[in-house]
Design goal:
- This protein has 147 residues and is mainly β.
- It has one domain (5-146): Jelly Rolls, CATH 2.60.120.380.
- It has one helix spanning 5-22; strands spanning 27-29, 32-36, 50-55, 59-66, 72-78, 85-92, 95-101, 111-117, 125-135, 139-146.
- Strands 1-2-8-5-10-3 form a 6-stranded antiparallel β-sheet, with no helix packed on it. A 4-stranded antiparallel β-sheet has the order 4-9-6-7, with no helix packed on it.
- The longest helix is centred in the first third of the chain and has 18 residues, at 5-22.
- It is globular.
- The relative contact order is 0.28.
Length: 147
């Protein structure tokens, strides 16, 4: 395939833009780095997707076991309705990250997708995830998973 000069320029600009977006830090706390996640590419093994509903002021909890040597995990809280506001707090065995809200990942779309990393690896053990109904009218359905 032959790429013209202008096509090559657009390709390079797109690659630079995407890499800049993916490197943006949302939070840094206790050695953890939290970054927005662009397009999700699910691996073969993920926590079973949790489907839930939440109301104003309600809290739902989820748990995920991080194995020793794991360099990063990705979280995805998706409710798809920007008129309601949910938050996500991530509790590692050695610290708390968040809360994060719609827009914390750089996009306001009723979804919070975040990557959590730490060098050389995340603290192993059971991690807790708190989904909170920050401002919800009636009942809001959502999906949540970690991988």
């Amino acid at each position: 395939m032959k790429v013209s000069g202008i096509g090559f320029f657009i390709l390079i600009c797109a690659l630079l833009f995407v890499s800049g977006v993916s490197a943006q830090k949302v939070d840094e706390n206790g050695g953890y780095t939290v970054t927005p996640v662009g397009t999700l590419k699910l691996p073969g093994v993920v926590m079973p997707m949790s489907v839930g509903t939440i109301t104003q002021g309600e809290t739902d909890w989820y748990y995920y076991v991080v194995s020793p040597g794991t360099p990063s995990i990705t979280t995805d809280l998706n409710w798809g309705d920007t008129s309601d506001s949910l938050s996500l707090t991530i509790i590692a065995p050695d610290g708390t990250l968040g809360p994060y809200y719609d827009g914390s990942d750089g996009t306001t779309n009723g979804r919070i997708t975040l990557g959590i990393s730490r060098s050389p690896s995340l603290t192993s053990g059971t991690w807790s995830f708190k989904v909170y109904g920050n401002q919800v009218t009636g009942s809001q359905g959502y999906n949540f998973f970690v991988y």
